[in-house]
Fold this sequence. Notes:
InterPro entries: Acyl_Trfase/lysoPLipase (IPR016035), NTE (IPR050301), PNPLA_dom (IPR002641). Residues 15-228 form the PNPLA domain. By secondary structure, the protein is α/β, with parallel strands linked by helices. It has a single domain (13-97, 124-242, 270-316, 357-382), classed as 3-Layer(aba) Sandwich (Cytosolic phospholipase A2 catalytic domain), CATH 3.40.1090. The chain has 17 helices and ten strands. A hairpin with a 2-residue loop joins strand 5 and strand 6. Helix 6 (124-133) crosses helix 8 (190-196), helix 10 (259-290) crosses helix 14 (348-354) and helix 12 packs across helix 14 (348-354). The mean pLDDT is 83.
Amino acid sequence: xxxxxxxxxxxxxxxxxxxxxxxxxxxxxxxxxxxxxxxxxxxxxxxxxxxxxxxxxxxxxxxxxxxxxxxxxxxxxxxxxxxxxxxxxxxxxxxxxxxxxxxxxxxxxxxxxxxxxxxxxxxxxxxxxxxxxxxxxxxxxxxxxxxxxxxxxxxxxxxxxxxxxxxxxxxxxxxxxxxxxxxxxxxxxxxxxxxxxxxxxxxxxxxxxxxxxxxxxxxxxxxxxxxxxxxxxxxxxxxxxxxxxxxxxxxxxxxxxxxxxxxxxxxxxxxxxxxxxxxxxxxxxxxxxxxxxxxxxxxxxxxxxxxxxxxxxxxxxxxxxxxxxxxxxxxxxxxxxxxxxxxxxxxxxxxxxxxxxxxxxxxxxxxxxxxxxxxxxxxxxxxxxxxxxxxxxx
Length: 394
């Protein structure tokens, strides 16, 4: 069966879904709004889909349902709207206690740690959920039908120190290799999702071929780059952090920062800081290219081109929202997180990444939905579709 082309002649819009643990529920709200804004029975508007960490799970969910975009988003929302932490990791007393003892044993026994995956939490339930929810064979079917051009999921190799994008794509997409990052063609499976979403320390690393891999957000210096390598002409990025507009106030510390506060800052640097830098770099390159006459590019056979980018990010601080829903966690998890300082204001950043509970996720979905509607005109123009309300004379 020959591959059909996706909207032949139209720019390929790439969708970039960043990491962020439970914060990725925000992305679902954005996607729900996009479904409502698109004309009825529209095809998947994102032929190139890239995801990292929890964003990889959302990306794969959209990709396997690329032939029915609205249905894929509806299924994704159903999962996130009914989430409980026990679907992500073991949160029962026996499971938490057993995993904690394993962590302690690994600290005193080097041999034990070498042969047993060690992490704060046991995410076996997530693997079972993904196996149950995804039909990975549908990815190639969507590529052949033309509803999908490429899906890329990024993970980080603990041995090589490289950021690896595992991708499944149309035949014309070629592997790439850049400094500390490369693209590798594979048949996407649950193991790639587990590797990309294995938050360091919290979830165990996953062995793919001959190397162990962890969360793809680690040292991902160019989060937008995989989408461009996979053929995107423009990129829509869905972030998981409110843009920082003011310098933070500097105050005198009265006590040593709790573990959760330090861990929260570390996760921020892993999940969101590199995206801000990469987007700023892309916009700066675009401005520079505008100053160079097109004849210069032709004479020197230079293939550089401006890449249009749009970002949708939370209008509210997710840390503060997380604090309001901390009580929804199972008591054993509240006890564990309280012990490391995650239940207080200074630990709310870490809490926002691990709060996989329905009330918190639903709040983020609604936030993403409303934030997207506020950018309706700009978004529709970016995707290249006509406003349904204007088309109907509304």
